[in-house]
Radical SAM protein
Amino acid sequence: MPLAPKEAVARPAGWKDWKWQQRHAVRTAGAIKEYFPGCPPEVLREIDAHASTRRFQVTPYYLSLIRTDGDRLRPLEDDPLWRQVCPSAPERADPYGYDGESENWELDEEMVTPVAQHKYGNRVIIRYSNICHAYCQFCYEALRTLERNSSKPSFERRHWLQTLDYLADHAEVEEVILSGGEPFMHSDEQLAGVLADLREVRPDLVVRIHTRSLTFNPFRITETLAQTLRAHEVQALGLHITHPNEITPAFVEALRRLQSAVPLVFSNVPLLRGVNACPETMRELSMCLYRLGVHAGYLYHFMPRSPKSELFWVPVDEGRRIVRSMKRHVSNPAVPEYVLPHPTGKYTVPLHDADEHPRHEMDPDGVRLLGFVNWRGEHVTYPDPE
C-alpha cells in the first residue's frame, strides 16, 4: 500500500485530535512558508491573491503527505496532493469555465427548501455544511464552499424544519443524502440530532453521508462518531478520494471504524489531469480501495463550472480510455462507473464507440460539445473542448 514519505516523522502532541488539526490548519501564505520554507515566492503571492476572495485551508495532516524536495523545503510542483490544494494562476477566459456565478448542479426549481435538493425522484440531497476540513481548488461546490462571500444559504434550524416537513409529505423519497461541504465538520451531538430527526419523521429512509474526512482529517472518525452512525442506522457512506497517496495507516484506521458502523462504503473519485488521469494511477487507486473493502462508486468527469478547469480538465474520450483499460482487466467491483455530472442529472458514459451516444457537435462559437440523451430522454450538451 503506498505511503507518503513523511508518514513516519515525529508528530506534535495533539496530532491525532481532529480539532487540533482544524485549529492548526494552514490558511495563509505566511503559514505555508513556515511549513515549506523554500516555497517559491510566486506560489506564495498566488495564495495571498486567492485568499482575498476565496477560502484557503489545509490541515497539517494533509500537508504532511505532500511530497517535497530532498530537504523538505518546498513541495514538488507536480505532487498530486499539492496540486489539489495549492492555488494556481487565474483561470483562463472560458465560456464554460468557472465564473463565480454559474451553477454546475443545483437548479433553482430543484431546491425544495434552502438546503434540500430534489433532483431524482427517490432521493433528496441535504446541504448540511458549507465548510470543509480543507479546500480543493477544483471544488464542484465552489459557490457554496470556496467563495468567502457565498450567496448559498447555510444550514439553519428553520431550513431543517422545512426540510423535515417536505420529507414527511413526500413518500416517494426513499433516501436522504447528507452532503455539503463536509457533513462531519458538525459535532457528534449535532449530527446525532439531525439523524434522530430523520428517523423520527421517516424511519423508513435510507440515510447516506458523503465525506472527505478520511483524506483531509481522518482523526475526525472517532469511535464516538462511529457509534452515532451505528445508533441511527446510517446505511451508506460515500468516500471522496483522488489518489493512492491519500491511503495511509490513519486513513485505514478511520475506514475500519466506519465499516464497523455503516454497511456500505463506496468511493467517489473526481477525474483530474495531473492527479489521477492515467490508467496506472486509477488502477492502483481502485485496487487499493477494493482490497480495503470499499465498493467502486463513481468516477466523475470534471464539472465545467468549477475552478481551475484549465489545470484539471480531461477530455471525455481520455476518461473513457482510462475506464476501458480497467474493464475486464481488474476485478469488476473495483471499476467505477464513469459519469458526466450534468445539471439535468448524471449521464453514464458509454465505453465503446459503437454506442449510439454520445456524439460531438459544435456550438455557434466553434466550441466542441458532447451531445447525449440524459436519464429523462432529453437531448442535452456538455462542453468537451479538444
Q: What stands out?
A: Residues 18-85 form one domain. The mean pLDDT is 92.
